[in-house]
Amino acid sequence: MPSSDATTAAAQAALPTRHTLHAPAAVLDRFTDSELASLITLRRTLHANPELSNVEHATADRLHTALRALGVTEVQRVAGTGVMARIPGRTHGAPVVALRGDIDALPIQEQTGLPFASQVPGVMHACGHDVHASWIVGAAMELLREPAAGDVLLILQPAEEIGAGARAIIDSGVLHGVAAIFGGHVDRRFLVGQVIAEPGPLAASADSFTIILTGRGAHGARPHEAADPIVAAAAVIAAVQTIVSRRIDPSRPAVCTIGSIHAGVAANVIPDTATMTGTLRATDAQTRALLTTELARIAREVAAAHGVEAVVTIERGTPPIVNPVREAAWARQAATAMLGADAVVPFGITNMGGEDFAFYMEQVPGCFLRVGARAPGEPPTAAHSPRFDVAEGAILVGAVVLAACARTASQSLATGRGVDDAEPSSGSSNRPML
Ligand SMILES: [Zn+2]
Ligand SMILES: [Zn+2]
Fold first, then answer.
1. What is the pLDDT of residue 397?
2. Closest-lying ligand to the alpha carbon of 129?
3. Ligand 1 centre from 127 Cα, in Å?
4. Is 307 helix (H, G, I), strand (E, B) or coil?
5. Over the stretch 34-52, which tens digit does the pLDDT of each residue have?
6. Distance in Å, CA 235 to ligand 1 centroid
7. CA-CA 20 to 30 A from 66: which of 94, 201, 263, 269?
């Protein structure tokens, strides 16, 4: 266990005040001082002790302990280093809703200089999953004092960064009978207190590929005796740029990036092979399919023009996240009730990043939100940067909004009502509409 007195002291150093958390008063007022301190300390302790995908052992222990300390009786391990908890609803048999937070860190050397910076060389919470894990614990606080109609499953998921954890949770069978699922990601492009909860694409598919070009090596001085895979690779790299520019409908976002190329060992030797890898991104299934078929076709045919054979392997990753209208309306209603209508802002961005929450949405309808995580005046540092940090008020906003999503979805499903025929929100209320 990496826990130490030094870690705890660093995590508790200069805890933010209610004012410096920058979260809306309606959100802060829902938590006691001791709850705020425990959530911030939990996040800082996770941040100081990051663990890579599928080895989140101490992280899972800490989250398990935090949930049990709240009085949650049903807490168990799932999918190896995941944790699952069940918060009882008001009515036995009412629809069950799941909330998911991911918990893994990245292989990055932290450069934030924070007092609770990573104590693990080369490992860092640079994507905010320490915050996501903490806001699920905060959502448990919320759902214990104001339960949903049905039970709420809290899923603390390992291994998001390698696209494996969601599938492992699904394979464990714990989502059986779950009627809706909600999750979110911190976003430094938006201020603390702002939330994106809207229908449509929220994340892209992320498929990776390998192209192996096999020609015929020769002396660098006698290229006419070779079938040069390096020249073929150069032609393939240029040609695949036309997939996005000439083959994909300009109104549909798509990316084809070649991220690595390896060939040859000496200046005067033409090698037999060249290998390239890359990533394909799309926000709809049709574009996703077109990217893979066109990549394979162009690589093969361009290589053939150089007398070189291309073997293209596609490794399918996460599908796109496309929030459905009904579940997005519930999330929007929940966020509006908690934060006010002005806080629910348009995304206005096409996110070509991948997110393995998409695998849940293939099984269970839901909504994925973006949660503002920048304090006023701070720069919008990108996730996966060694200087990434999150304004901690986002923990409370995420907790309150996700708990409200669970209540709103559970109640709407229980009464068989869509959001359209639910009672109109007062707009100024900071309570969820149930
Ligand atoms: Zn990430
Ligand atoms: Zn992430």
1. 98
2. 2
3. 5
4. coil
5. 999 999 999 999 999 999 9
6. 32
7. 94
Q: What is the pTM of this model?
A: 0.90
Torsion of CA 433, 25, 339, 388, to 10 degrees: -140
Q: Where are the beta strands (DSSP E) in 341-407?
A: 366-374
Distance CA 140, CA 142 (A): 5
Distance 267 CA to ligand 2 centre (A): 41
Integer Cα distance of 131 and 183 in angstroms: 12
Cβ < 5 A residues, ion ligand 1: 127
> 384 C-alpha to center of ligand 1: Å?
6
Domains in the chain, CATH or no CATH each = 5-201+321-421 (3.40.630.10), 205-318 (3.30.70.360)
Residues 6+ apart with CB under 8 A from 84: 75, 76, 77, 78, 153, 154, 155, 156, 174
DSSP code at position 87 = E
Q: Could you identify the residue written with the tokens 């299934």? A: 285
Tokens of 203: 């994340």
